Amino acid sequence: MDTTKPHPRSIKALALDLDGTILRPDTSLSERTIAAIRSCAERGIRPILCTGRAIEAVEKYRVALGAGGPHVYYNGAVVAEMPGWKIHAMILQDKESARFCVELARKTGLYFQAYLPGTPEQPRHRLVAERGGPERDFYLRHTGIEAEIVDMEAALADPAIPGCVKTMFIADLEDHSPVRQVIEERYGGDLYIAGTMGPFLELMNPRATKGEGLKTALGLLNLDSRDLIAFGDEENDLPTFKIAGFSVAPGNARDTVRNAAGLVIGSNAGDGVAVFLEEFFKTLPG
Asked: Per-residue pLDDT tens for 225-239?
């Protein structure tokens, strides 16, 4: 962990997690945060959104920030240029592990859903689940995306579906550990598992991380990772910390994330990222 702050003039990009970082606890984006990030962009500092959310669930925030270009979605499984839905990279979870999780969900009664990839003609991804209920409703409120009810085993059997963008259990935190243990015993390091916000336990191809997605986005922008500050609060943000020149965690972040960060700032409830950006870049013309 490097705790030496870089010079403001050396920074060319910001890797910005959404939930728990630049979003407030109610998932709103404050006017102060919008102004701070837009001010950075006006100075030539590129905001790159790095989130576990789906593309559709990010659009209102991206538009508010005026942040066009490549961004990292689904914890790094997709790098897409928005607006326009240009998919630059997509790393899929294999269907066999997804089917295993469908069967595990059926046995345990836990809620499970999957994002299926789109096509060149219809690039939007399809969210599917086997039942409704409070978990599906919670996800709809959180993201604005409602899962389509299908027979997931049959959906995954479709030869036109090459794999899953991301799959997810939505369950009480006490149910995460036993489910995670079963999956890890079966797949070990062949499946990436990350607890993200609250009840979400997400699964993806192990090559799909925010760090790998961020590398792709930086390459598209011809930017060096050493000239980047990464912001995040959850374990899925740690891969971005490893490649960034400097890393920052809000005070509400997990202990492991705060310990890994070069600097801990105010919480997301107090617009900690905005406060940091205002102070850090105040010497730059803008």
From this structure: 999 999 999 988 999
- Per DSSP, 271 falls in state T
Residues linked to residue 129 through DSSP beta bridges, in sequence order: 113, 149
Query: Domain residues of the chain, as ranges?
Result: 8-90+209-280, 95-204
Maximum CA pair distance of the chain? 59
DSSP secondary structure letter of residue 196: -
The gap between the terminal CA atoms of the chain, to the nearest Å, is 30
pLDDT tens profile 186-221: 998 899 888 777 799 999 999 999 999 999 999 999
163's torsion region: left (phi>0), alpha (psi -120 to 50) or beta?
A: left
Q: What is the pTM of this model?
A: 0.90
CA nearest neighbour of 145 among 165, 159, 160, 163: 165
Q: Which fold has domain 95-204?
A: 3.30.1240
CATH top-level class of 8-90+209-280:
alpha beta
Phi, psi of 2 (to 5 degrees): -95, 115
Do 231 and 273 contact (CB within 8 A), yes or no?
yes
Give the burial class of 121: count Cβ atoms within 10 A of its Cβ; 0-12 exposed, 13-18 middle, 19 or more buried: exposed
